[in-house]
Amino acid sequence: MKLTILGCHSATPRVDTHPTSQVLEIKNNIFLIDCGEGTQVQLRKNRVKFSRIKHIFISHLHGDHFFGLVGLISTFRLLTRETDLHVYGPKGIKDVITLQLKLGNSWTDYKLIFHELTSKESELIYEDDKVTVHTIPLKHRIYTNGFLFREKLGERKLDLNATLNANIDKSYYRKLKQGFDVVNEDGKLILNADVTKDPAKPKSYAYCSDTAYTETIIPIIKNSDVLYHESTFLEKHAHLSNPTKHSSAIDAATIAQKAEVGQLVLGHYSTRYDDISGFKEEAQTVFENVELAEAGKVFTF
Amino acid sequence: MKLTILGCHSATPRVDTHPTSQVLEIKNNIFLIDCGEGTQVQLRKNRVKFSRIKHIFISHLHGDHFFGLVGLISTFRLLTRETDLHVYGPKGIKDVITLQLKLGNSWTDYKLIFHELTSKESELIYEDDKVTVHTIPLKHRIYTNGFLFREKLGERKLDLNATLNANIDKSYYRKLKQGFDVVNEDGKLILNADVTKDPAKPKSYAYCSDTAYTETIIPIIKNSDVLYHESTFLEKHAHLSNPTKHSSAIDAATIAQKAEVGQLVLGHYSTRYDDISGFKEEAQTVFENVELAEAGKVFTF
């Protein structure tokens, strides 16, 4: 998986900080996660090809996570897009986008498909032959979901030398990759385990923003390779977390530690902080493997 | 008047070009005209104080002229604005902004007052003691207005030497400024014209975007000091003007010449042109006093 941060600050877009948006690439699939104002310019800056975006996931309908969506949808139209676009987000997202297209008499020529979310339980909302996406119900001021992206287990890998030595006809290679034993050219049974290797361990990425500290997400995100968890506040402002339903760096790290994830990526910093290094320092008092999201930064895992 | 261009390209925001927005300052009043995506960042870059914006005029509901409005309104809320905000724009603008604030449960604490426009005739939509604003009905794919900003004639100016020599009591200065004759300390009638000078000629600014070539606007904008007229296309693409209801540089210059304005400012360039110098060259074949709008450029008149 390749995660590109387009923006990772809360509240208002500013000259050098951008509201939330991320691009997640999984085996040539591109998923856009949240879409604050200015996301389309950030996509250009980071050279993400617009036509490769086919699925957009919106966590909730606060402006810093979705005010850039209607502009992106409109730009796709101006670029004469023909490919379907799927948008996953809270109920209401279809109405508000549709109303804006209607007022501008700017209907898309491509097919725009909304998947409106209402469930308060985690649910499967996307699946193809390589990836599943489940919602992660979060605890915020309005209805909000995080998203859990999981690779599927791939096919077994041929041990090419062993396969050749075992004198197996090429037409059986498909079966081998699928885990079957096969009969070779000499009529002998070849055990799958002798000529194949385990596929790469499937990776998973959990995106949790915006949310107050809530342990209800732990069973859902358990053992994820990477967890992006919002951390709006440092400890000195932690008293603001509960009233605003946001988290501190310590909150995020506590969730990472309890969910036993591989790595924690922090973001959604309050714009009150000019220097974000304190987020990492505070989180690392609880959980060691912490990285800071920054616009333009790429995480590969 | 001081006009600051925040963005002057059509269609989509890009890394180095910005959709339409302008700030017009008239005697300490700040008017924001149109508000494409990214306007709030452009306001920051150009150091316009957010709290000074009390009136926003939206020409039409195409994204490149209004997708930045809801974000700006939300940012005002986050900055704990208390001052009323007036928004002037086509019918529908209230619904679409309100729906977004409702979905985010992010109602403004300050008063948000919409003035929805439906008239196809020019009408007075704003007036204070210094300025009037009239609509300029334009010819575009959807309902669109330009805006004509006119200073009111100020008070007469005292010729201080003449006033002192005429031995006039200071309590009469107000009357003099208002144009009255007065009686001096010696009981002699002093003619207003002998001790005052004409006030500065009131300035006017006509904003016309987006529009096809239409002579119906000429009587409204006649003799304006500065005309901003959209020029989306160069001559080589002038055949696109009619189907898209936009103008070429020559169209804009022809309107400027027929309306006998003082200066023409061009903008709303199609993003297909990397070099905009051709707009000025083509317009100047028809009308001499042409300037090119560019983001960050300031015109004082």
Which SSEs are present, and which pair or pack?
The structure is a homodimer of 301-residue chains.
Chain A: E1 2-7, E2 21-26, E3 29-33, H1 39-45, E4 53-57, H2 63-66, H3 69-78, E5 85-90, H4 93-103, E6 112-117, E7 124-127, E8 131-137, E9 145-151, E10 157-158, H5 160-165, H6 173-177, E11 182-183, E12 189-190, H7 192-195, E13 196-197, E14 204-208, H8 218-221, E15 226-230, H9 241-244, H10 249-258, E16 263-267, H11 277-283, E17 290-292, E18 298-300
Parallel strand pairs in A: 3-4, 4-5, 5-6, 14-15, 15-16, 16-17
Antiparallel strand pairs in A: 1-2, 1-18, 2-3, 7-8, 8-9, 9-14, 10-13, 11-12
Helix pairs in contact in A: 10-11
What do these coordinates show?
2 copies of one chain form a homodimer. Chain A contains 11 helices and 18 strands. The longest helix of chain A has 11 residues, at 93-103. Chain A folds into 2 domains: 2-154 and 200-293, 4-Layer Sandwich (Metallo-beta-lactamase, Chain A), CATH 3.60.15; 157-197, no CATH class. In chain A, the strands form 4 sheets. A 7-stranded mixed beta sheet of chain A has the order 6-5-4-3-2-1-18. Chain A has a 7-stranded mixed beta sheet with strand order 7-8-9-14-15-16-17, with helices on one face. Chain A has helices spanning 39-45, 63-66, 69-78, 93-103, 160-165, 173-177, 192-195, 218-221, 241-244, 249-258, 277-283; strands at 2-7, 21-26, 29-33, 53-57, 85-90, 112-117, 124-127, 131-137, 145-151, 157-158, 182-183, 189-190, 196-197, 204-208, 226-230, 263-267, 290-292, 298-300. The mean pLDDT of chain A is 97. In chain A, helix 10 crosses helix 11 (277-283). Chain A binds chain B through residues 11-15, 37-38, 40-41, 44-45, 61-63, 67-68, 70-71, 74-75, 78-79, 90, 92-93, 95-96, 99-100, 103-106, 141-142, and chain B through 11-15, 37-38, 40-41, 44-45, 61-63, 67-68, 70-71, 74-75, 78-79, 90, 92-93, 95-96, 99-100, 103-106, 141-142.
